[in-house]
Amino acid sequence: MSSTTTIVSAPGKVLAAGGYLVLDQQYPGVVISTSSRFYTVIQASSGSANQIVVRSPQFLQAEWRYTVTYNDAGIQVIPQEDSIGGKNKFVHLALQHTLNLVSEIHSVAQVQEKLVQGLDIAAVGDNDFYSQRAQLESLGLPRTIKSLSQITPFCHNGVKLTDVHKTGMGSSAALITSLVSALLLHFAAISETDFAVLEGAGRRLAHNAAQFVHCLAQGKVGSGFDVSSAVFGSQIYRRFSPGVLDPLMKGEFATGTLKSVLNSSAWDYSSCPIQLPPLTRLVLADVEAGSDTPSLVGKVLKWREHEESCEIAKNLWTQIDELNRSLAVQLNILSQSYEKNREEYEQTIRQITSLPAQQWESISPAFYRLHQTTQQIRNLMRRMGDLAGVEIEPEQQTHLLDQSIEQAGVVGGGVPGAGGYDAIWLLVCSPPGLPYEQQPLRRVESVWSNFGESNVTPLLAQESVAKGACVVQLDRIPGLKEAIQRQ
């Protein structure tokens, strides 16, 4: 990578366990980061000093221009009136606050020096972040993973950013994480060496800064699991105390405040690395029916706090929490058993691949337990939905999941995050060298393509191999160079 180019990618997410509960610091969640990623490419432009152009070449009219000015109040990033993309709060706030953080760590002069030719910033997301149903239809291709792999990487969506259909994989968190991290690296506020270490101070600062910008852009302090998984990868996540961001959320930006708050020891989140069992794979589906997550969450929290239901809610959340923690322990145990005896583990996977999970108990108690736990979590989440009057796992999704999970070689699954109509996740066995016709994935795709109650399209994403956000080289990512050169 040249000294004038910085590229950072950050993964999407699936909250496999901990929907609703993860909002409360008492309860951890199991978050899986995906192989589908957002990329921010920062290059010195040949334009004017203190001019920043941000482009999203996957959309129509997606260009935002900013002028950077300097005064006693710090650095001001001012949107230009003639930007064809209109306003972009996420990008604007990321630039405004990250550049001020850089100036507090180094100096305003350091920012000015890097902006002497201006900056060109391109932000693109893997196709999985946006529904590809229309692309598949236009190409006359069936809704399969094989078909999706034939679509041009970072393809143009043919619509404005505001009109795109998202798949719920955390695009805003992945964008903010990649953009904030790339800016901190490009302006040398953190070192690439420090950022490469999962426990490095540079990575922690990038995480805290991305959490702040994401919260500010959304107008509230959320749980932060999506940003945390974008930074650190798959994990058992416990949220930070919202109060740590109080000064910044109230707009107190006296010189030094950003650095002080974002480096504060009051950040008390925990993120313990986790991974899915070896020789299994995550499978995600984009279901043609969206859900309004904020309204679902609002109704559940209102039910939880109501005096008539708070005791029932507390007991139910305790039961769900015990299962969520058990799920995390079981995932770790399976990974450890693979490390202890890979040959025996692989043999077990091959055996259970050809059988439905109900028949696994005598062959692999560990995988059978994992199946049972995911089913118990589903049952209790449905019960919470019924009690709160919210469709956490709507009947249509129950039918889809039941038909998918009864297939041979499928471990379990659920509706991710807050639930609703728009997605499901599955964990399926994936032994090496098995012909496609014999794979559980093929059986699942067959169920989905024949499902009569909604259109179901798989996503390409699996679990991310790389642990969270990382610096990448332009020529190592297929299609990235072509995408950022697109006008």
Helix content: 40-55%
Radius of gyration: 23 Å
Number of helices: 17
Please give the alpha-carbon distance between the first and last residues.
23 Å
The helix-strand sequence is EEEEEHHEHHHHHHEHHEEHHHHHEEHEEH
Mean pLDDT over all positions = 95
* Largest sheet properties: 9 strands, mixed
Structural class estimated from helices and strands: alpha+beta
The stretches of 5 or more residues where confidence is low (pLDDT under 50) are: none
Described by the principal axes of the CA atoms, the overall outline is globular
Q: What percent of residues are in strands?
A: 15-25%
Strand runs, count: 13
Task: Please summarize what this structure is.
The protein is an alpha+beta fold and about 475 residues long. The protein has 17 helices and 13 strands. The longest helix has about 30 residues, at about 310-340.
Which tags fit this structure?
487 residues; globular; alpha+beta; four-stranded antiparallel sheet; nine-stranded mixed sheet
What is the element layout, followed by pairings?
Elements: E1 5-17, E2 29-44, E3 51-55, E4 63-71, E5 74-79, H1 89-105, H2 108-114, E6 119-125, H3 133-139, H4 145-148, H5 171-186, H6 192-195, H7 201-218, H8 225-232, E7 235-238, H9 246-249, H10 257-262, E8 270-273, E9 280-287, H11 293-305, H12 310-340, H13 342-353, H14 365-388, H15 395-405, E10 410-414, E11 423-429, H16 440-450, E12 456-458, E13 470-471, H17 480-485
Parallel strand pairs: 3-6
Antiparallel strand pairs: 1-2, 1-13, 2-6, 2-7, 3-4, 4-5, 7-8, 9-11, 9-12, 10-11
